Amino acid sequence: MGNCTSFTSPKWRLSELHSNGMVSVDEDGTHEGIKIIRIQKACEFTTNSVLCVCIITWNMNGKMSVDDVTKLVSSNRKFDLLVVGLQEVPKCDVAQVLQETMVETHILLCQKAMQSLQMFLFGAKSSEKYIRELKVDKHAVGGCGGIIGRKKGAVAMYINFSGISMVFISCHLAAHEHKVEKRNSECQHISHSLFSKNDIQYTKSADITVWLGDLNYRLEGISSIPARKLIEENRQSKLSGKDQLLQEAEKGEIFNGYCEGTLLFKPTYKYNIGSSNYDTSHKIRVPSWTDRILFKVDHSSGLGAILSSYEALDCIRSSDHKPVRAHLCLKVHDDSA
């Protein structure tokens, strides 16, 4: 969209979407599991027909570092919309820091909080005129625990932006390796509960739905030392077969028809705070990809999506989690062409 300077719906047929590396839900609706898609480093869409969305998730571990919050959004800002989902947010004004960092290029369009769960939506300065509808909701799945209040559940936003309807769900699910079924149940409760009080089922009618957050799924069936050895050798992709999230999705328990980029980055949890070294406490936790970004495109919408990046931000070290960032390029086609 060229940072929202103009927008026209291009005339692309479905066959063209697939041939250009776009993704959508399988036509027969029988897709099981999470579809792993490749990263396309450069978006090949024409400037005036693309909506570029940057999505970031980060568990802050109850600690505020202005430098690290600034680093989250201080790099390349060639996007129209920015979604930032935070978990275990300390009692401080993160929104102000984000706004001050983004002030030259983007404005805060919306925010939603549920204690330590917070989400922010930024748009290019000219973007307000493209918003046709904007709704927020939240759903708790557990109490808060600990000093910082680790609230579990999700906050959500629905936005119709220049005719593209999008739902963003930022969540924090149950911790610990053995609580797989609880995480599955929380996903299902959140999905069924968000926006359920509205006459319009926003979560069901969206062109694209994005889940981001600390989903807390762990590596299973491997101990810490062998896992760390593979990571040290930059062979962490071999660990994806041990990932609970992918396993549960393959069983059909959760995230049917969703897509995720290839897990090329190192597991994002658990690190020694202030470093990029994995946990050296007496627990010596198995490194895991707890922090994820998944998306699902409604086939009937005619919307295509290219994932141009999916990465962890190793330079941020104030938490025991590394942030994860994805960059989606969206394009609409006109099937009547």
Output the keywords.
alpha+beta; globular; 337 residues; five-stranded mixed sheet
Short note summarizing the structure:
It contains seven helices and 13 strands. It is of the alpha+beta class and 337 residues long.
Please, could you describe this protein's structure?
It is a single chain. This protein has helices at residues 14-19, 66-73, 94-102, 180-193, 202-205, 224-232, 244-250, and strands spanning 35-37, 51-59, 81-87, 106-114, 117-124, 131-140, 153-161, 164-172, 208-214, 259-261, 291-297, 303-312, 324-332. A six-stranded mixed β-sheet has the order 4-5-3-2-13-12, with helices on one face. The chain has 337 residues and is an alpha+beta fold. Helix 2 (66-73) packs across helix 3 (94-102).
How much helix is in the residues? 10-25%
Q: Could you tell me how far the N terminus lies from the C terminus, measured between alpha carbons in angstroms? A: 21 Å
Mean pLDDT: 87
* Secondary-structure content class: alpha+beta
What is the number of helices? 7
Which overall shape is indicated by the principal axes computed on the Cα atoms? globular
**Largest sheet composition:** 6 strands, mixed
Order of helices and strands: HEEHEHEEEEEHHEHHEEEE
Strand order of the largest sheet: 4-5-3-2-13-12
Quaternary: single chain
Instruction: Show unreliable segments.
Output: 2-29
Radius of gyration: 19 Å
* Total strand segments: 13
- Proportion of β residues? 25-35%
